[in-house]
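re: that chain from earlier
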Amino acid sequence: MTREHRGAGVGRRLVEDSIVRARRTGFDAIMSNPVFESSPARVLHERLGWPAIGRVPQGVDDEPAIVHWRDA
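^ sequence. v structure.
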């Protein structure tokens, strides 16, 4: 997400839409791609009920990444 679009609710709508689409297509759980620890998306996922289930110590450029999971 570009900086000028942060805080406008776009990310929230995308994450919420992914939950709806997952249910609609028969998925019972969803895993997000790893989100960097420093990313605002990490906080968004956790606020929307995606608990962190794992950590990739050296994601990209040695920055740790978090893996989130939730029931659909």
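The chain has a mean pLDDT of 84.
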